[in-house]
Structures are given as structure tokens and as C-alpha cells.
Queue: 3 jobs
Job 1
Amino acid sequence: MKGAMFRFCGCVAAMPIAAFFLPGVHTADARTAWIAGAFLGFIYLVLRPIAKLILLPFNCFTFGILGFVVDVLLVRLAAQWMPGFEIDGFWWALLAAIVVSLLREGAGTLAGHGA
């Protein structure tokens, strides 16, 4: 439970960072970036495990690359549903998904060492 909370916080923090450093990721303002991060974190908590489980056999054949495609699709889904949050294309969504993954896993790692 603690790890999931830290990963969610990492996801929330990833969107303002991605919007600041990646020119293809746009948010209306800082508040929207934080809300988009929280929305993406919720999507990652709910939809990502289901998608990963369904696509597990195909993910094995692609050596994990399909996992990044799932993350990109979730980032694009969040951009479609969240007003004031836009991503210019697939490649920017891929870079944003990499930033989110790095911060999520980094926060999850911190949760494991802090006990």
C-alpha cells in the first residue's frame, strides 16, 4: 500500500516536470499540470494493471516494448480526457511516459527503503 501511494505521488510530480522540460507537453498552468498528474496517477492505478495483465503474453514476445506502448496510450488518454493538458504526438507522449515511469519507479523504490 505504501509503495502504491509513493508511485502515485511520483506520477503526480511527473506531469509538471514533463510539461516544464518537454516542449511537446502542454498544460494551461501549473495547477492544471498537477491535476493532470493526479488524473494520470489514477489512470495508472486503475487501468495500467488491467492492460498489462491482458497484454502479458504479447509483452513477452516484444521483450517489454509493449509496456511502453501501454504507458504512451495511457498518457494520451489522459491528455484527451483532461482539459488544458495536451500532447503534440506519439513521440512526445513516449518521452512523457518515460519521465512518468522513471519518477514512479523512483518513488516506489524510496517506499521500499524507507521502512
Job 2
Amino acid sequence: MLFGNFSLPVIVAFVVTLAISFTFHEFAHAWTAVELGDDTPRLNGRLSLNPLAHLDPIGALLLLVAGFGWAKPVPINPYNFRNARMGTVLVSAAGPFANFILALLAAIPYRLGALNLIYGIPGGSALAQGTATFIFIFITLNLNLMLFNLIPLGPLDGAKILHGLAPMNWDRWLVPLEQYGTIILMAVIFLGSFGRFSIFGLIITPVNQFLTSAILGI
């Protein structure tokens, strides 16, 4: 279980962060698609900041069990875009970009020294430590979501971005990769979750650590 050894405040920070992060990730997909001329997300009730509109029960359950998960994909119709290929790239990139923006915004109080001000008030030490923990969790989880979704395996955003930016003659390799990407993705994730070696962890963890340090200035 993901939360097996965590305290209640840390679990709450995880749940709140994921609710916000998944919601803004999917809302960014929906908003970008609508702005580019595709009203499909709005018609399906996905142009919303209500977390329940984006909740995927299986993805949420796997998050608790295996430490990874997903929200409900936003339906789009690429043929409503002026340029179907580039429109799909922009919509796909909007989700990870939203997570990156959330990570940057979360760092602002830390960068401005707000935690030092909290430390200065009576009994502020515990509050400052709790706030620092929440900020760190919020930043690292959003960066994890961004980096994970940029992996070029279907059904992740990275697969659609790569497909849209790659030359047309790459389609004979990329289309099957998208079709079978889910199977490959699940296999790699489960091996990493229940084994001792994770390819994704090997790639994502050092990049996440670098970006977190850069964002927080530490």
C-alpha cells in the first residue's frame, strides 16, 4: 500500500495534492481542446474543476495499492482542430504543463520566505514544518505526474506528443506502440512496484530531484 508507513498528515497531503493535480491536469487538456475549436470536452462535462468529473475509480484504486494511478482521459475529436496533428500535440502537452505550473506556484511561499514568518509566531514551528512538508509533497508529486505522463507510451500524453511531432513515416512504428503501449506500461509499472528495479524510477527520480532543487532553490 502506498500509505502504509505514512502519518495521517502526510496521507492527507498526498490525497489533497493528487485531487488538485489530477483535476488541473485534465482540466488543462479540456480547456486547450475547447480553445482550439473542439467542444467535445465541454459536451462531456470535462471542462470542470470538480475533481469528481475527472475521477477514474480503477486509477484511484491502483494509486492506493501500487503507488501509481491516473484520472479519466478527456475525450477529444482531433478533426475539430484546424490542424489535427498539432492540435493533438498541444492538448496532450497541456496536462503535463499544468502540473509543472502547479509545482512552480507551490514554491512561491517558500521562495518568498513565508515559512520563516510562520516560524516567528508563537507555536509556529509545527505549522511551518507541516507547511514545508505539504509544499514538498505538492511539488514532487506534480513533477512526478508531469514526467510520468511525458513517457512516450500509450495511453500517456508523451505518446501523443511524440506521434504528433514525429515525421509521418514514423507512424508504422508509433501506431503499434500506442496500441500496445498500455500493456507495456502496465508490465513495467508492476515489475517496478513489486520488484526491486524500476526503469521509470531510474529515469524519473533523478530528474524530479533536480527540478525540485531548482524550483525551491536548494
Job 3
Amino acid sequence: MDPLSEVLSLIRPVSSAFRGLDAGGDWSLVYPPFGGVCCVAIRDGDCLLCREGSADPIELVAGDLALWPSREPLRLCSRPDIEPVSIMDFMAKVPMGAVAVWGSGDDCSGVGGYFGFEGSHAQFVLSMLPPVLHVRAEATASLRLSIERLMSELRVPQPGGALVAEHLAQTLLIEALRCHLNAGAPGRSGWLFALSDPQLCEALGLLHAEPGRDWTLRELARRVGMSRSSFAARFASLVGETPMAYLTRWRMMVGAERIRKGEPVGQVATAMGYASNSAFSVAFKRTLGISPSDARPSSRADSSR
């Protein structure tokens, strides 16, 4: 698999809720943090998306789509100075797939919702995404079709609908990330933006394909046709960390998923390139904040009782 597919395969959408919005006059809706991913697509009119502490709201116009990991409150509004109402309270009585009307309507219409994810480190993966992905109208045709199909599945439940909705949610996330990458994002850092660099994308693919290999900086640079120093500098600049730090983090994420599925810790430690369980456990705890035994499904079930 390619690096983007590898990363997203570690998180699974398990819930989603989408509704339409037709707003008019003065309005402001706040999306509180909840640990998933929020999404808004504008059909007609325009509005603002405001981040807390930012003086520059994002203007969304007809055809635009915004998607963001819900780790801070964001407001969708007609003006930034309007006191917001919680989107959860406003939409509580509106059936999934239906349209909520604010005021006179007609000024701004669109669809929005959220995805909830499952996975022992879903939040760790989502934290690697940019605060907001703003996809312009010219690139959103396929995204709007996916949202409309998802709304249809939610509005009129059918046999197998839950699985279809799960796949549509993951497809929508992947397509939004693709559009964001294709649009270019100069000056940004993170694994996502590094995928637009052919040589770094190849390097990430090598690390993902063989996480347990004893990789060296020199070998990685040689495999992608760069000098050791140039590769190290570009990787750190675009990814935001050194190749070896990224490799350690990727090993722990893959290891956590394998442990979650029931694989013995010792077997996972060996597969991830560690000579001893203790060395693997130390790296695991340092990176993910929990011990390998805590990643087992039985451990999480016991701790929730």
C-alpha cells in the first residue's frame, strides 16, 4: 500500500451523522471538540469558518468543502462577532439526512456532519492532520457526490447501510486529503504534505513497507537518489521530524494495531526490529503513552469497568 493508505488503514470510521443546513440572517454555530472529524460542504451562498484565537476566518463559498479533525472548537457563521449556539443543540431534533433551517434561510445552504473513528491510536493519527483542510470548489465534485450518497444512506437506512456509510466516510476523507495535496500547500510541514514530494513519498513508502528493517539514514537517502545530508534536511523540514523518529513512531502505531488484534507482544517486538521485549516496551510507552499490555482489547475493556 502507499503511505496514505497505510496510515488511514489504522483508523476505522465507525459512526457518522450528516444533515443539511439552510441559514439566513445573523447566525453562528460552534463545533465543540469530540475526537473525530468534522466536514462542511457549501452548496449556495457563503459563510465563515473561524478558529479560536485566529484573527483570519476562512471564507467558504459555493462549492467549497472544509474538513477538520475535531480537536479544538470551530465556528461556522455569517459574522465572527455573533454569539454562537452549539451545533449539537441546534441539530439534536433534526433527523439524519434532513435539512435544518436557521432564520429565514436562503443566505447559505450546504451539508455538514462528522465521522467518529475507532482504533487504539485514532487520535494519534488524527493529530497528524492539519487544523483545517479547505478544498476549493473546482476540486470538490467527487466529494460532493460522496456526501450526497452518505446523506442518502443515513436518511433512508437500508440493509448493509452501516457498512456502506463506513466506507463512504473513509472514501470522503481520502478524497479530501488527495484534493488538499493536489492543491499544494507551500510552507506546511507534516507527513501529509511530504507525500507531495516524490522522493520523500518514496522514502515513507520504504519505511512503511518494512518497519522492522534496520534502516539507516544513508541507505534511505541512497534508495531515493539523494545525498545523506540533503535527504535528512528535506525530511526534517517537510515531515517535521527526523527519519528515525518517524520510523519509531510508525513502528509503534503498527505494533499497537497488531497487539490490538491479539498478536503476542514478543512477536510484535521482533517484527518491529527490537531485540528484546523491554526495549520495545520502553519505546512503545515513550511514543504512545501506554504500555504494550494496555493496548490489548481485554486491558481496555477491564479499565472501562
